[in-house]
Amino acid sequence: MTTFLQFHILTPWGPSNPNRDDQGRPKQAMVGGVPRLRISSQSVKRAVRESCFFTLDLKGNMGTRTKRLYAELVAKLVAGGTDRAAAEKAADQVAAIFGKLEAPKKDAPADKVATTLAFISPAEWALAEGLAGKILAGKDLPKDKDLKKLVLRKADGAVDIAMFGRMLADDADFNREAAVQVGHAMTTHAAQAEEDWFSAVDDLNRAEETGAGHLGETAFGSGVYYQYVCVNVDLLVENLGGDGELAAKGLHALAKALALATPTGKQNSFASRPRAHYIRAERGSAQPRDLTGAYFVPVKAQAGVPGAIAALEDMAGKIDRAYGPVAEVVEVMDVGGGLGSLEAIAAFAGASVGQG
User: Fold this and answer.
1) Exposed, middle or buried: residue 76 (CB in 10 Å: 0-12, 13-18, 19+)?
2) How many Cβ atoms sit within 10 Å of the Cβ of residue 130?
3) pTM
4) Radius of gyration (C-alpha) of the chain in whole angstroms
5) pLDDT at 168 (0 to 100)
6) How far are the Cα atoms of 176, 223, 271, 288, 305 from residue 337, in angstroms, in the given order?
């Protein structure tokens, strides 16, 4: 049976704007007919990938999301002594494996870029460089899909690709289904964005010159956010080519990153560096379920994290009574209640591999 690892996380944010919409305001959502502040799943995943738990602890096992493989290949080949024209010809053929290339725009650098972002694993990057070398050496190579098979992998050691998946529009055979599903974080209570009007003073103003040197405004919000994350542990191991040890290491890093890594929008303006105050980690083989329903009737903002915890645990109990227990094992960290630790949560997550 499939093993699922689920995280339910509550994090209090002070005045901040970590994830902005197209107007520069905190993202929002209507939940239960009540306005809430929201942090998108995409920004959470980006923060996780950029955290030290991934960039350092999983170094060498991280993919690169880019449109610029062509330029990188050309630069490396030329640095190795290859004629630029030959390097460009080889790079053009190799980079096209990951997606269509477009000519540079007017007044832009001369290198071609892909039309879409490609998520490239370290193994694929090395194979791409190797293929460019074979092209330069004049070796006979297969065409089309057979050529792609020399580079593209369906499973390898890129933890972030294995977790968050990828889509290659030009060749769905090498897509990766995400093993980690990340929900949009939302406030457990009613919350709306506020406006901050500010001014700045010119330090060299003469005494007789009154008034501000600059006027501006920015938006912010605050609240207790609920974040849900679900991991298909078996799929994660499969995406990593069966490497259970690496999967366990990745889950250990994921648990820590979810508690500590946050989007950094407007961080210099608000010094927003929150930490999760409550994590409920669940492991089992039953169909997963999120606990967003605990907050469709909003918790009173004044209840804070304790009120949000009470609503969450109450909803988990009610669903379990109606459907049967979802989790076979539960690990909890409650900062306010003095219960558990992040290290215990991370160890619990890593131990989920091989439990099916």
Assistant:
1) middle
2) 13
3) 0.93
4) 24
5) 87
6) 40, 19, 26, 26, 10
